[in-house]
Structure formats: C-alpha cells, structure tokens
Amino acid sequence: MLAISFAPILVRSSDAPVSVQGMYRLLFTFLVMLPFGGRQLRELHTISRKDWLLLLAAGFFLALHFLLWMASLTYTSIASSTILLALEPVFVMVGAYFLFKDRPGRWAIVGMLTALVGAVGIGSGDIGLSQRAFFGDTLSFLGALAVAVNMLIAKQIMRRVSSFLYSFIVFGVTAACFCVYNVAMGIPMTGYPGREWLVFVLLAIVPTVFGHMIFNWLLKYVKPTTISMTVLAEPVGASILGMLLFREMVTGFQLIGGMFIIAGLVLYMRAEKQTAAATIPVDPLPAAVIE
C-alpha cells in the first residue's frame, strides 16, 4: 500500500505521454524479473491454450487500467483520481460472487457500501468544480472497472500458474499492448531526457515490483476482494504526498469521502478477520509449520 501510493506522484512528475510511461513501467519490470525466472520460466510450455488466452486478457485489461487511470491524473486531482479508483472492490465483489461463489458477510458488505459512499461523494464534489475534473473522474472510474476484471482473471488462472510466472507474462503482454497503442497513435517512444527515464525506472520498481507483484502473490492466499479493500488505503498516502509535493489541497468533499473510505476499510477487514477465525479449524500443529 505504501509503494502504490507513490504511483500517482511519479506519473504526475513526468511530462511524457501516459502510454509511454505505462509501456516503460511494465517493460522495465519485465526486464527486472527476467534474471530471477530460472526454473519457473522453463514451465512456460506447460501452460494450456486456455490459460494463455486468459493471460493475454489479463494483460490487456491491466494495460487498459493503467492507460485510463494514468490519463485521469491529467484532468483531475491526485486525491479524486485515487479515491475513485477505490470503487474497484465493488466490481471485484460482484464478479467474485458470480465466478467464485465468494459470499461476503453482512458487515463486510456494510464496509464496502460505506467506502462506496465516500467514493461517490468525491465524484459528486468534482462535478461542481469543472467538466474537466469530472472527465478525469470518469477515466478513473473506468480504470477501476478494468483492474477489477484483471484481478478476477488473475484469481482464476493463478490456481494453475505461479504468481511469478503470471506477473512475468502479464507484465510483458501489458508492455506489448502499450507499444502497439503508441505505434498506432504515432506517439514517440524515444528521445526523452534522462529525468524521464529515471521516472520510468522508479515507476517499475516502487509501485509495480513492490506493489502489484506483491498483490499478485497474495492472490494465492486471500480473496481478491480483500486485496482490493486494502488498496483503499492508497488514496490516503497519495493525497498526503500530493499536498506536500504539488500543493494540491484536499477539498471538503475529498476529506469527508476519505473518512468514509477509511471507515469502510476498517469495517471490512474486521469482518473478514472474524470470518477467517470462525472457519479455520483448531490444529495443534498446522500443515504450514510441518512444511
């Protein structure tokens, strides 16, 4: 959560087109992972055709998420963009219910709805500011939908593919999608100053390696909705950094909405913890200890 809070700050710090930022962010992450693949990369031939299609779809939706969300930072504030991205758990909850039969408890749903109220409050406040800000909010909303689809695909395919191999392939596909987009739109991919390349590298290392890769690994052990709810903490860190670095003061709507999001996060995580405690059997020597 700490790592991904720096993502909007780094995006805003760059003057390069967001599609170029996204391409190098994922390309550099792909290259960083390459030397550590070892045995796992030798398992590429074991992936079925169906899983390859799912991996391609996951990469496409991740690219769509980055393109939409990063573009939103051009039109709206860091606080609004990241807080509206918090709608992701709502989409993940609905999808997980139909795909995986994940049925959240009553208080978990209350927590989600509380967070949703906060996010809607942010959007409604920006409508009154300008059409430009509302357009940026819309891009962030669509970006949240795209990453929710990506997460649901990841949860399904990572039952058969390791988290490292999944991240490696999907990040490569995402970078390729950005490359195709840049070529099609005639966006230059070279000729940027050294400062921009530093931002590209930091985008790869900080929010991607220490953010998205960790979330992908956690999908092996926890529900996708749980991971999505923890991402709700990103707007808090990003908004604070935005105030310190870009003097983007938080509005009343953003402050109240953020408080609702934090309250919803606390409610949800407490409910999930109680549910997990109630379903885990008592075992004097857990299997994890034996292993």
Automatic annotation (TrEMBL):
Gene3D superfamilies documented for this protein: 1.10.3730.20
Descriptive protein name: EamA family transporter
Primary location group: membrane
Entry's transmembrane regions: 23-41, 53-72, 78-100, 107-127, 133-153, 165-185, 197-219, 226-246, 252-269
InterPro entries, per the entry: EamA_dom, EmrE-like
EamA domain ranges (all copies): 15-122, 135-268
Origin superkingdom: Bacteria
Protein family per UniProt: Belongs to the EamA transporter family.
Any single GO CC term annotated in Swiss-Prot or TrEMBL for this entry: membrane
Keyword Transmembrane: yes
Alphabetized UniProt keyword annotations: Membrane, Transmembrane, Transmembrane helix
Cellular localisation: Endomembrane system
Topology relative to the membrane: Multi-pass membrane protein
Keyword Membrane: yes
